[in-house]
C-alpha cells in the first residue's frame, strides 16, 4: 500500500473502531466485522481502489454518527415528551 494512503487507512480504521464502541449489536460484534473487512481488502494495491474504499468507509462513519445522533434524540424526546 502506498505510504500516503496508509495513514488515511489507519486513521479511518481508528475512527471506525472508536465509533463502533456504541454500536447497537455491541462493540465486539462491530470490531470483529471491521477487522474482517479491513483484512479482506489488505491485499489491494491500486491507489484508485483504495481511495474508493476510504470514501466508502467515511460514508459508513457518517452513517454511524447519524445513527447515534438519532438514538440520543429519540431517548431525549421519550423522556421529555411522553405521549
From TrEMBL:
Domain Complex 1 LYR protein: 8-58
GO biological process assignments: negative regulation of oxidative phosphorylation; respiratory electron transport chain
Family recorded in the similarity comment: Belongs to the complex I LYR family.
CDD domains with a match to the protein in the record: Complex1_LYR_ETFRF1_LYRM5 (cd20265)
Pfam families: Complex1_LYR (PF05347)
Protein name: Complex 1 LYR protein domain-containing protein
A GO CC term assigned to this protein in UniProt: mitochondrion
Amino acid at each position: 500500500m502506498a505510504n500516503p494512503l496508509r495513514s488515511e487507512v489507519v486513521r479511518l480504521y481508528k475512527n471506525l473502531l472508536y465509533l463502533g464502541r456504541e454500536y447497537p449489536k455491541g462493540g465486539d460484534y462491530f470490531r470483529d466485522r471491521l477487522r474482517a473487512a479491513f483484512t479482506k481488502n489488505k491485499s489491494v494495491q491500486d491507489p484508485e481502489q483504495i481511495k474508493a474504499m476510504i470514501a466508502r468507509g467515511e460514508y459508513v462513519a457518517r452513517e454511524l454518527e447519524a445513527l447515534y445522533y438519532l438514538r440520543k434524540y429519540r431517548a431525549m424526546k421519550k423522556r421529555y415528551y411522553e405521549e
